[in-house]
Fold this sequence. Notes:
Elements: E1 8-12, H1 19-27, E2 44-53, H2 56-59, E3 69-71, E4 74-83, H3 98-104, E5 110-116, H4 135-155, H5 158-167, H6 173-180, H7 187-196, H8 209-223, E6 226-231, H9 238-245, E7 252-254, H10 257-268, E8 272-273, E9 282-283, H11 291-308, H12 313-324, E10 327-333, E11 351-354, H13 359-366, H14 368-372, E12 374-379, E13 384-386, E14 397-402
Parallel strand pairs: 1-4, 1-5, 5-6, 6-7, 10-14
Antiparallel strand pairs: 2-4, 3-4, 8-9, 10-11, 12-13, 12-14
Helix pairs in contact: 1-10, 4-8, 7-8
The structure holds guanosine-5'-triphosphate and magnesium ion (MG).
Amino acid sequence: MPGSYSRLLGVIGKPNTGKSTFFSAATLASAEIANYPFTTIKPNRGVGYVRTPCVHSEFRVQDNPNNSLCIDGVRLVPVELIDVAGLVPGAWEGRGLGNQFLDEIRRADALIHVVDASGSTDCEGRTCKPGEHDPIEDVKFLEKEITMWIASILKKDWAKIARTAETEKKGILVPLEERLTGLGIKRSSIFAAIRKSELNADKPASWSDEDFLRFVDNLRRISKPMLIVANKIDLPTAEANVERLKKLDYTVIPTSAEAELGLRRAAEKKLIEYRPGDAEFKIARPGMLSPGQINALEVIREKILLKLGSTGVQEAVNTAYFKLLNMITIYPVEDVEHLSNHNGKVLPDAYLIPKGTTAHQFAYIIHTELGESFLYAVDARNKTRIGEDAVLKDGDVISIVSTRRRA
Ligand SMILES: Nc1nc2c(ncn2[C@@H]2O[C@H](COP(=O)(O)OP(=O)(O)OP(=O)(O)O)[C@@H](O)[C@H]2O)c(=O)[nH]1
Ligand SMILES: [Mg+2]
């Protein structure tokens, strides 16, 4: 996807927690939503947005966004999401829709785990008395499912590859990498997981079963970072559970996916003024709304926006990008005076790139040719030249000067 450095967010969890509602709210793509488990069978893929303050106000210019949107000073940069079937305990062994689900999140770079914080669905997603089910159990089971799934992929010929790695003295990194690239897991993550597990990469045959599982569990945490969306916060039994979920080792974002979906649909029809993630909305066309609709909107305002500051959906997408994946936003321009591209469009593009990216690497991200012909970059804020090794900062407006062209 242009400008997003193609990262994929996987929306996962047990059935009936609101994954498709969250996905629809985030992307405004239609996805089937219903109050029973396994509504979603085939995955939904769609485009949502990361929200960031646009630099155009600071530079006091009017912008012409191209790869993204800008609504009243808020830049919305497209990002891709996938909503999959619900996962039930034992999925890694093929229960429920089992491995099919796991296969679909293979390519996800970060996971948004949607939990029913109100506790009104049991461990298989069947409706139960609100507050009856403990959502902490859902977090534990999901961790286990993903770990066991990765372990089952590695376990098949583990004894053999561990022995070969030792006899040929080639270490375990390369054979592990070969087996894990299909899951989008990189060598650096494997290396980090071995270190974190305090294991010897040269002696894998001596790892005990426990060592092996500890390694896989660390690998999951490192390669598939996850946050918890504590959904259905509009229900009264959710509040206490959110506080308990926050004690776990995750970023927890309370949400009402249903409320966000309502607000975005109303905004799409121009019935209200609302940008994804706003703390408030304004009714734009009261005459077009029934008293029931106005009442529903006012309940969202009172019970969610005034209480929590937002519905949480946008915050979850932003947190996945900016915190879990450590991304920053960069605006490439060709002309640093006018902040425009070669068509005269002002601040046309916003790119999401990993923190730590250098000016030269950024040139490669825009275009291989630009990377190859890179001379130096110019920071549009102070019009100074920056070298190839300069690390870019969030919100930088950068022009790349190359032997061929400016970008
Ligand atoms: N109260 C409340 N209900 C919600 C919220 N989000 C979703 N729901 C309801 O929860 C039920 C399940 O929603 P879905 O989005 O279909 O859930 P899912 O996780 O995709 O379910 P599967 O596809 O079956 O795994 C529906 O009745 C939704 O209307 C929310 O924020 N608050
Ligand atoms: Mg669904």
